[in-house]
């Protein structure tokens, strides 16, 4: 008979406690009354939902997320496709470039972007003063490693050469080949990349806050500093968004044994 | 035309991508590197970078940042490894493993402001756990307690508090990164070594650890970089004034909270870059070694 794995259970229980107690505590905070601090009321959720700033910041971040996803995919899908098809020599170059954001994390990137576009190039205000332009271009860089690894895995799992030749032989143009043959075959990888990007954008605080934009994460920070108990409701909501994005990726990738990936919102 | 080398049309397709990377990644990072060595008139100088060593609050920011990253990477790697290994032991129900991985996927991504708030609600001055310990049976004041290996009383807003908070994303990251490597430890190796008379310690000393060590070190480097670059969590916990870590100092420079040398931010960013680049130089060759065991 096998021994009962006593130490393993101890670690699992300790780990479980460490990870769940903060969530439970946040939940308990979120149902306290904002005036008296007594249990139980859903008023904090109401405060958040009825705050117009919540919706406007949420909208800004969602739009930036959609723009980032769109720009990333139009930029990276053709590139990675082409590298797999014609320029396999470039694959290590792309893999290397996907490591660069590790050495240039958001806090360094924002210093560089502000110095370069404000002080060196004197970029006009429509770029520097507009969250949709400025943050989207920065977030494409932040998302690049995750989008790259996801798409690269997708392209490796299909036969790019055969699909392309078959499609071209049947008279399809390059555009049709890419959009109607290749894209449907890597749609799961592309969707995972999209959800990862969504999670990045909905959590990114460093660049948004230091370049003085109001996005969803900076709104959370503002509520944190000003309204104690509603902040708990907002925290759970933000956790829910991360859950949603990660679960979608898991459900999408289940068929081909997809791996959960890690993005950075720290 | 006899040219075997045609105009490299194939390269045109990848031009937009590389142009984008140059514009939004390489030129801005290059700007940081150049600015770090420029004086106010645009001339070359070492003084910005050497100020990091000679100015006490800048040097201490680097010391605290590196210590915070090393310690949270160490504990994160240790606990993450133990949890990942515990989840696959015999006798542990099968559903534990996917539950852990799923949750880790979320927790590793749950950083920043919301994470800081979750810990404020837990062990902040009026946190649920703090209050609970103060209550009837315990009468224990967490904020009067000096944790082991520490020389000052516990506070969520100090080094120890920030470390405990960072572990909330460090441990799951370790678990995600190391699980595939642990899966690579084949059961046959364990059986073969025990058939040959090896003890459990000998198995780990001569088989398990040598196989896993490159993966563990590269995971450690990822964790280090993860903590080293973190800004939002520390910002929310210390409100930009308490714990002096490098990203916070850079943030203060950028928002103009402190009157300082305009090149200080760039010099600090360059310092961070240098530390992370050294880590990357260890990481890349290790990655090659680990892939040898991956199947």
Structure description:
The complex is a heterodimer of chains A (266) and B (295). Chain A is mostly helical and 266 residues long. Chain A has one domain: MetI-like (MetI-like fold). Chain A has helices at 6-30, 43-49, 52-85, 91-97, 100-103, 106-120, 125-128, 131-156, 160-169, 174-185, 187-203, 206-210, 216-226, 228-253. In chain A, α2 packs across α14. Chain A is globular. Chain B has 295 residues and is an all-alpha fold. Chain B contains 12 helices and no strands. The termini of chain B are far apart. In chain B, 40% of the residues are buried. Chains A and B meet through α1, α3, α5, α6 and α8 of A and α1, α3, α4, α5 and α7 of B.
Overall CATH architecture of chain A: Orthogonal Bundle
Count, helices of chain A: 14
* Largest sheet report of chain B: none
Order of helices and strands of chain A: HHHHHHHHHHHHHH
Please state the oligomeric state of the protein chains shown: heterodimer
CATH class of chain A: Mainly Alpha
CATH 4th-level superfamily of chain B: MetI-like
Instruction: Tell the overall outline of chain B.
Output: globular
Helical content band of chain A: over 70%
Largest interface: A-B, 88 and 86 residues
At the first level of CATH, the class of chain B is Mainly Alpha
Mean pLDDT of chain A equals 88
CATH topology of chain B: MetI-like fold
What's the helix count of chain B? 12
CATH architecture of chain B: Orthogonal Bundle
Shape estimate of chain A: globular
Q: Structural class per helix/strand content of chain A?
A: mainly alpha
């Amino acid at each position: 008979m096998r021994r009962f794995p006593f130490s393993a259970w101890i670690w699992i229980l300790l780990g479980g406690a460490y990870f769940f107690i903060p969530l439970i505590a946040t939940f308990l905070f979120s149902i306290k009354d904002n005036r008296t601090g007594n249990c139980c009321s859903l008023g904090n959720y109401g405060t958040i939902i009825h705050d117009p700033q919540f919706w406007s910041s949420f909208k800004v971040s969602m739009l930036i997320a959609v723009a980032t996803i769109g720009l990333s995919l139009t930029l990276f899908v053709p590139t990675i496709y082409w590298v797999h098809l014609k320029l396999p020599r470039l694959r290590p170059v792309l893999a290397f470039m996907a490591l660069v954001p590790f050495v240039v994390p958001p806090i360094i990137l924002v210093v560089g972007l502000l110095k370069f576009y404000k002080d060196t190039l004197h970029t006009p205000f429509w770029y520097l003063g507009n969250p949709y332009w400025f943050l989207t271009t920065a977030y494409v860089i932040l998302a690049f490693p995750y989008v790259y690894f996801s798409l690269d895995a997708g392209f490796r799992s299909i036969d790019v050469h055969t699909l392309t030749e078959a499609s071209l032989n049947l008279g399809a143009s390059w555009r049709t080949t890419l959009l109607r043959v290749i894209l449907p075959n890597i749609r799961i990888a592309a969707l995972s990349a999209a959800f990862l990007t969504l999670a990045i954008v909905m959590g990114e605080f460093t660049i948004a806050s230091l370049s003085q934009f109001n996005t969803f994460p900076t709104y959370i920070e503002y509520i944190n500093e000003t309204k104690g108990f509603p902040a708990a409701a907002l925290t759970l909501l933000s956790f829910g968004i991360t859950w949603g994005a990660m679960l979608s990726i898991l459900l999408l990738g289940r068929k081909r044994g997809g791996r959960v990936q890690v993005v950075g919102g720290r | 035309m006899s040219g075997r080398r045609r105009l490299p049309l194939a390269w045109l397709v990848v031009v937009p991508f590389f142009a984008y990377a140059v514009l939004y990644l390489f030129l801005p990072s290059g700007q940081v590197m150049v600015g770090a060595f420029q004086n106010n008139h645009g001339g070359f100088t070492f003084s910005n970078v050497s100020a990091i060593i000679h100015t006490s609050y800048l040097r201490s920011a680097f010391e605290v940042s590196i210590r915070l990253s090393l310690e949270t990477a160490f504990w994160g790697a240790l606990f993450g490894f133990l949890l990942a290994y515990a989840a696959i032991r015999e006798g542990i129900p099968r559903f534990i493993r996917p539950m852990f991985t799923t949750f880790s996927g979320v927790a590793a991504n749950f950083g920043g402001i919301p994470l800081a708030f979750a810990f404020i609600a837990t062990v902040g001055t009026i946190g649920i756990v703090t209050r609970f310990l103060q209550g009837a049976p315990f009468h224990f004041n967490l904020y009067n307690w000096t944790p082991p290996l520490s020389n000052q009383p516990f506070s969520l807003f100090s080094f120890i508090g920030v470390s405990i908070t960072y572990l909330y994303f460090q441990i799951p990251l370790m678990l995600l990164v190391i699980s595939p490597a642990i899966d690579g430890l084949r059961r046959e190796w364990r059986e073969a070594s025990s058939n040959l008379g090896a003890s459990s310690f000998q198995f780990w000393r001569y088989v398990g650890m040598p196989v896993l060590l490159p993966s563990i070190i590269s995971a450690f480097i990822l964790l280090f970089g993860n903590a080293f670059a973190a800004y939002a969590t520390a910002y929310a916990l210390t409100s930009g004034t308490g714990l002096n870590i490098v990203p916070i100092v850079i943030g203060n420079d950028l928002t103009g909270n402190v009157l300082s040398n305009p090149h200080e931010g760039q010099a600090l960013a360059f310092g961070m870059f240098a530390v992370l680049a050294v880590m990357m130089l260890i990481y890349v060759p290790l990655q090659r070694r680990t892939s040898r065991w991956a199947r």
